[in-house]
Each structure stands twice: as structure tokens, then as C-alpha cells.
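Many introductory courses stop at the sequence. We go one step further.
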Amino acid sequence: MSGGADLPPNGGSHETVGGSHETVAGSHERVGGGGDRRGGSSATLAYKRSRFSTRLPLDRRYTAAHYWLLEESAGVWRVGFTRFATRMLGDLVEYDLSIQSGAAVALGEEIGWVEGFKAVTAIFSVMEGEFLGAGEDLRADITLVESDPYGRGWLYRVCGRPDPESVDAHGYAALLDTTIDKLLASRHADGQKDE
């Protein structure tokens, strides 16, 4: 993700309630259970690090580029931006996908772009397989990417294999810790003060 971000400046604490994830910084907690309107599980991992907090659905895979992947049926995956990605991008104003339904797509292939007030960012495929189409609801309301990133704000669907380096919610929480620590270190190296 590129562009400036209103990043969380202070360290956090970690605790696990009802889950098994434990790390050194941030806050993670397993919450919920059962199904929801998106066709996935409503069980989440609560994450808090400094001023950034989110709930990560446990039924998804996550990538280092801050995409989530949900297997809807055998080999069919829905893909969207994580809450962290939407925070980095800022308010979104438009997007476009340059690939057609039915086309072959490769892992890492640039397939479109999204424009926010903070940056224009490429959208990449986090899958290898057949591109099935874009999130229909986004054509009418791009703000769903930010307001409902794990539900109606999904970006695209692919039938195929996900990024083999994708991780579960606990792995993504650890990745967020590392990412936020690097951003905070960069901010401090530039002489910026925490608010």
C-alpha cells in the first residue's frame, strides 16, 4: 500500500481471551461464533495495536499485502482489502478492474486500481486461476470497501489456488504487529512525535 496514513503511534498490550494466540505487543481476543449474512463465520479475532483496532474474521486467509480471502465453495474464493488496507488508503473514490470474467489470472498480476484521497494503488491478484468477476455492490457504492470490508465491500472472486504464503487470522495479527512497528519506527526516525 502506498500513500500517507494516519497510523497508530503508541505501543499496545497483548492479551488473549478465549483463544490461543499470544504475542508481545498489540491486543488479540477471539470473539463470537456461528454464521452471518456474508456466508462466513462471525467468529473474529479482536486486534488492537496503538490507535488501530479491528476484528479479523477467523474464516479467512490473509496476505502480507493486506488482502483477505474467503473460500465460498471448493476452490472459489472471494477477495477484499483488510480494514488495515482501507485505513492506509483513506477514503476511496473510485476503482476499476482491467480483467474480464473468465480470464486466466496469475498470482501477483496487476488486475486493476483503486483511488483514495491518500493514494492511487494497484489491485493485484492474490490467486492463481480463473477470474470470476468483481464485487457487484462496489459499482454502486465504493465506500463499502471501507464501511463493510469483510462483507459487501469485497473486490473480486477467483476459482483457483490462493497465495501459498497467505496466513490465518493469528498469523495476520503477527504481521500487523510487525508492519505497525516498522511504520512507527519510520515515523520516529523522521522526527515525528506521537500524538
